[in-house]
Known about the structure:
The structure holds two protein chains of two kinds.
Chain A: E1 7-9, E2 12-13, H1 14-18, E3 20-26, E4 39-44, E5 48-56, E6 61-70, H2 74-87, E7 93-97, E8 103-115, E9 125-134, E10 139-141, E11 145-149, E12 154-156, E13 166-170, E14 176-177, E15 180-184, E16 190-196, E17 199-200, E18 204-209, E19 214-219, E20 222-225, E21 230-233, E22 251-256, E23 264-268, E24 271-272
Antiparallel strand pairs in A: 1-2, 1-7, 3-6, 4-5, 6-9, 7-8, 8-9, 8-10, 10-24, 11-23, 12-22, 13-18, 13-23, 14-17, 15-16, 15-22, 16-21, 18-19, 19-20
Chain B: E1 16-19, H1 20-25, E2 39-43, E3 47-50, E4 56-59, E5 66-69, E6 78-83, E7 87-92, E8 100-108, E9 117-122, E10 131-137, E11 140-146, E12 152-158, E13 165-173, E14 179-185, E15 191-192, E16 209-212, E17 224-233, H2 238-242
Antiparallel strand pairs in B: 1-17, 2-7, 3-4, 5-6, 6-17, 7-16, 8-13, 8-17, 9-10, 9-16, 10-11, 11-12, 13-14, 14-15
Amino acid sequence: xxxxxxxxxxxxxxxxxxxxxxxxxNGFPGGLGGMTRDVALNEDAQAGPVLDPRRIRIRPKxxxxxGYIDAASVAAAITALxxxxxxxxxxxxxxxxxxxxxxxxxxxLLSHDGVAVAPAVLNGQVEITLSLMVPDGVAFRLEPDxxxxxxxxxxxxxxxxxxxxxxxxNGNGGSLTNPLVTLRDAGGQTVQTMGFTIVLAANDYLxxxxxxxxxxxxxxxxxxxxxxxxxxxxxxxxRPGDASVEAGGYATVELTASAGTTKGGxxxxxxxx
Amino acid sequence: xxxxxxxxxxRSRYLFDWEAGDCLAAYQQSLxxxxxxxxxxxxAATATGLDAAGATRTxxxxxxxxxxxxxxxxxxxxxxxxxxxSDRLYLDYNxxxxxxxxxxxxxxxxxTAAGSTRIIEIxxxxxxxxxxxxxxxxxxxxxxxxxxxxxxxxxxVTVTIASGDRVELRLVVASTGAITLAVTKNNATEVVGxxxxxxxxxxxxxxxxxxxxxxxxGANRATQGIHRVRExxxxxxxxxxxxx
Lengths: 273, 244
């Protein structure tokens, strides 16, 4: 009988579904298991080695799951082993663990090694090692965040890596002239703005996608490219460096305009090193 | 100028797999299904929903309206696509839904049942060529398989629903065309209705659309917060349909 509630692959409990007792979860980002983080230190002659967040490079990571299948028979062990292998046949698998149950990362199978060692195999026991690659190099929060935007400062909780939000700016049933997005750090200092030269009509909205570096304009449902409307600043990025994660203080985003009532929204996925 | 950000994507194991949260997380705010089917959305009005902080968020004309609820009681707010009486959403669907299991997870927003508003409907031309749907009924939920030659079978489950209930619907479609509907409310024991009689599928099943929150023509809309819609091959359990 395998222990359950430790590791989930595509939301399936490896203990209950494949009788897999997990011995080690190594190398996954986001605190899913033992973590290997690729952080470059800034060698400063006077201050000594310091951690410079601008020099953190997120690269694909290799990770590993080790354990043993404890099935009722040889046949059941082989079935469980095949089930695990088949899970990875369609590409990336969502990996989630008891160590950070609100996060997951996507992992490819690089290689697998199922060793059926006699005489244990006669009892349905197989040692197994799954070698994986996490191409994103980060873990994601299970559910995305989404908040309303207005002239008030909207707090944007962040993970331990940058988040790239998508914003919408609404004509809001009237008109809105030259909207401006302002991103502030937890202390209230402006760290980024992004301005647009446009009059949004009642049924219009702008969609600003920081991940894709794209701006779309919707006029009553007809979407066209809106990059030419962007006239100042840059795409906002939600950064841990602008927040105080321990104290719960986060960067804020606000939406102002030359004229009109501002309404809109911001949505993003928290990412974790 | 910020750098373009790519992200690994996961292929679904389901024939059809649509989830509101993934639409937001896909970095493109697309309403396409994880399983690849393209989506068409419209709403000729503004709308409001609750954001992840519980504040009211206004969505523009034609902008999908996401609302965050603690759908499964895990303390993490989950986005649902709030489909109101002005919204219309449909996705490509090519196939004959015989020997399939359909699954819908949603936040029921209908305090008082209102006739036969649609949760999902597969079909694009009405009874002439058949359709399959799940509906909110006056006494709970029902499902209809109309094979297009004038014969329809209806599966029902009687259940009392309050606004805000987490509802899971599971519709099993046998190869014979018989259907069985099951309903789970707030993670309680699943209530499985009786199977209908046989209803042989139309010889030419040519229904290239699945509508969510309305019927094939965009009518019979209801206000519901849809979290997930899935279709799997064969007869599958609720627990199977819950996981990715």
